[in-house]
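If it is no trouble, can you show me the amino acids of a protein and the C-alpha cells describing how it folds?
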Amino acid sequence: FFPPPCLDSINSNMELEILTRSGKSLANLSVDSDATVADLKKHFNSKFASWYPERQWFTVDEPRGTPLKKDTDSLKTYGVVHGSKLYFKDLGHQISWRMVFVIEYFGPLFIFPMFYYFPAVFYPEFQHDIKEKTWTQQLGLILAVGHFIKREFESVFVHRFSHACMPLYRVPINCTHYWLFCALGMAYFLFHPKYTDFGMSDSTIYLCVGTFIFAEIMNFNCHVILRDLRPVGSTKRGIPYGGGFDYVSCANYFWELVAWLAYAYLVKCLTAWFFLLVSFVQINEWAQKRHRAYLSEFDGKKNDLYPTSRKALIPFLL
C-alpha cells in the first residue's frame, strides 16, 4: 500500500513496488516520473548488485503482463504510474552476442584443420590408407576456413547488434549448428581416407569455387549495408538497398545459402547437403520473421513505405 503522494511527488517521482513472479515483494523503488526502462534497471541494480541490467525482465501489474521491452522507452509508455506493481524475472547470466558469434565460428576454424592435418588421430583404423589430399579436399579446407575467418572478422569489426546479450546457457545450443552439423559433420567425411573425389571437370570446380567466393563477397557487402543503417549504440533499423536487398529482405541470408550450395556441390558429401538443408530451414524462419517486421515497421504512416515487391529470402519465389 502506498500513501497518497504530495504534489511535488506527483510531479517528480513515482513509487513502484517490485515483486517476484510468485508475488513476493522484493523492493519499493522511487523513480523519476519521466524515467526510462534503462533508468529503472540501473536503480534496481543499485539495490541488487548481482542482477545487472541485462539479467532483468519486468512486466507490468502481473507476472505475464505487458513487458518492458525497450530500454530507451519511458516507463509511461507501458502504463507505469505511481503505485504500479512490476514483476521481476531473472534471465540468468548473460553473454554478449558478439562473443557468442566469436565462439560459434571458432569451432569450425579449429575442427576443419584438425581433421585435415591429423587424420591418424581421427581415423586410426585407416592409418595405412592415408594418402595425399585431393584437390577437392584442399579446396574444401581453404573455402571453409576462409568463410569462418570472414565471419570472425565481421563479428568483431562489422556487426552492430540490436540485442546486447543472450542467456549464457544457450551458447552450447547455438554452437551445435556450426560445431556439430557443419564442422564435425562435414570434416569427418570430407577428409576421410576413403573419401572419393568424383572427378568433376576443371570448369565445374572453377564454377563452384567462383560462385562460393562471389557469394561470400556479396554476403560481406550486405553486412556492411546493414551496419551502416544502424548508428553506433542504437537499435535503429532502416530499409536496406543494394547488394540483393532490392529483391529480398534478407539478402545476407540468401548469399549465405548460395555459398553453401556451391560448397555442397563441390565436395559432394551427404553431410554438406544436410547442413545446407538445416541452414535453409532455420534461415527461412528468420527471414520470414524479419520480412514481416519490416512490413509492419515501415507501413508508410510514421516511417517510409517498405517495398512490397520484395520477397523474404529467395528472389521472386520465397
Observations:
- The mean pLDDT is 92.
